[in-house]
């Protein structure tokens, strides 16, 4: 239909931005641990193996005693008689032992990550038997700081953290990974993100050095680590390496991703050579590509801003496509706007800030996605009629020139 002429003065364009609208360690890692359901210090979990015996032997009772050298426990199984004191409670056993009341014998208290079924089995003041996400229970260790996460079984605190756990007043040492089988968050550098190394002293990934300036005096940055320079006779390079300015380098090879500058190449740790393909996104050497199964692929577009001028992001395919519609098409403001500029569109007459006419162009209606209403390079503008009433919203730009023309 024919409409009254609309004129927009291009003083400036506004750009819209939008933002999306268990226990944890100090670094935010979810440990998945909790206290035993029974808070009693000496009460075993119902039906749980006490962790001190071999698999149950023959059944027994008052009328069917065990053979010599075996004892009938409270669950009715014959268990090999321990070489320790008999007991009915912990105080019968001494400070470093506890009483297994089911079997009636004393056992040595357990270190961090040893299987347990009751709090009194765990060594250290305030130590508790903790239920892990797997459903198994292991000893924690009462602590005030991570330095306390050491015992005879774990001579360093690497891989552990001292954390607060809901329902327990005393902090406990727990494995960072949430698994006693592999406590640390990493065991080797390949377990870590790009430009990070595995700090075995703490069992966590840490950012590696980028250059010598980040290292203490008398050391150099080599393969992301601060090390003594290789020209020191006590620190020679391994076979296959050459020492250059105190750094060990491979001849025509690589030590880190930095050494492979070509796009879509990576440093093979096994051969220490640059190989085609990728292991991480960095190897693609492009902010718009990601590493997928060893190959660099176009990164799915997150929105129209990611695309080239005049394009929109297809949310289903993740690809940028040329916008479909008469954007900036020349039109007659006295004609049928819907016919010229698609239903809901407007034919807009543009002027510069001095009132000079720039021409009349189509402004298709803005899309319904508030984060992506218009193609890249266009702005969603609210229009008003001559009475100041809302007259729709259209995608506009200064159509008097082509911003991508050579």
Work out the helix count: 1
Average residue-wise pLDDT:
80
Widest sheet: strand ordering: 1-23-24
User: What is the CA-atom radius of gyration, in angstroms?
Assistant: 35 Å
Give the amount of beta strand, in percent: 25-35%
Describe what is shown at a glance.
The protein is mostly beta strands and 406 residues long. It has one helix and 26 strands. The protein has one helix at 337-341; strands spanning 6-9, 34-35, 70-72, 78-80, 97-100, 105-108, 129-131, 137-139, 160-163, 172-175, 196-199, 204-207, 220-222, 225-227, 241-244, 247-250, 265-268, 273-276, 289-292, 295-298, 311-313, 320-322, 346-351, 357-363, 379-384, 390-396.
Structure, explained:
With 406 residues, the protein is mainly β. Among the domains are: 32-143 and 165-171, no CATH class; 324-396, no CATH class. The protein is 1% helix and 26% strand. It has 1 helix and 26 strands. It has one helix spanning 337-341, and strands at residues 6-9, 34-35, 70-72, 78-80, 97-100, 105-108, 129-131, 137-139, 160-163, 172-175, 196-199, 204-207, 220-222, 225-227, 241-244, 247-250, 265-268, 273-276, 289-292, 295-298, 311-313, 320-322, 346-351, 357-363, 379-384, 390-396. Strands 1-23-24 form a 3-stranded mixed sheet. It has a 3-stranded antiparallel sheet with strand order 2-7-8, with no helix packed on it. A hairpin with a 5-residue loop joins strand 7 and strand 8. Mean pLDDT is 80; it is low at 1-22 and 39-51.
């Amino acid at each position: 239909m024919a409409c009254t002429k609309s004129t927009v003065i291009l003083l400036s364009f506004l750009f819209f931005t939008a933002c999306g609208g268990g226990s944890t360690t100090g670094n935010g890692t979810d440990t998945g641990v909790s206290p035993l359901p029974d808070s009693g210090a000496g009460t075993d979990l119902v039906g749980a193996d006490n962790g001190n015996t071999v698999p149950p032997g023959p059944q027994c009772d008052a009328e069917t005693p065990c053979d010599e050298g075996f004892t009938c426990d409270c669950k009715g199984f014959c268990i090999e008689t321990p070489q320790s004191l008999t007991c009915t409670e912990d105080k019968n056993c001494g400070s470093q032992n506890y009483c297994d009341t089911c079997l009636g014998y004393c056992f040595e208290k357990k270190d961090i990550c040893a299987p347990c079924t009751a709090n009194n089995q765990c060594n250290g003041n305030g130590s508790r038997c903790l239920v892990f996400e797997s459903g198994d229970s292991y000893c924690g260790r009462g602590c005030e700081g991570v330095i306390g996460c050491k015992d005879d079984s774990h001579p360093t605190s690497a891989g552990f953290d001292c954390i607060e756990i809901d329902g327990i007043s005393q902090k406990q040492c727990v494995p960072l990974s949430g698994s006693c089988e592999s406590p640390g968050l990493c065991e080797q550098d390949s377990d870590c993100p790009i430009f990070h190394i595995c700090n075995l002293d703490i069992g966590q990934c840490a950012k590696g050095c980028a250059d010598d300036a980040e290292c203490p005096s008398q050391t150099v940055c080599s393969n992301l680590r601060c090390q003594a320079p290789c020209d020191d006779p006590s620190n020679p390079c391994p076979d296959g390496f050459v020492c250059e300015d105190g750094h060990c380098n491979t001849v025509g090879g690589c030590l880190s991703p930095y050494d492979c500058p070509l796009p879509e190449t990576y440093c093979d740790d096994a051969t220490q050579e640059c190989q085609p393909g990728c292991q991480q996104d960095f190897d693609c050497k492009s902010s718009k590509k990601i590493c997928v199964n060893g190959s660099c692929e176009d990164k799915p577009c997150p929105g129209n801003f990611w695309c080239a001028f005049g394009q929109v992001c297809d949310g289903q395919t993740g690809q940028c496509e040329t916008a479909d519609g008469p954007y900036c098409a020349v039109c007659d403001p006295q004609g049928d706007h819907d016919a010229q500029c698609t239903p809901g569109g407007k034919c807009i007459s543009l002027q510069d800030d001095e009132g000079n006419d720039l021409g009349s162009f189509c402004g298709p209606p803005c899309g319904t996605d508030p984060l992506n209403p218009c193609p890249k390079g266009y702005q969603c503008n609210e229009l008003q009629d001559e009475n100041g009433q809302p007259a729709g919203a259209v995608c506009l730009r200064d159509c008097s020139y082509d911003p991508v023309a050579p």
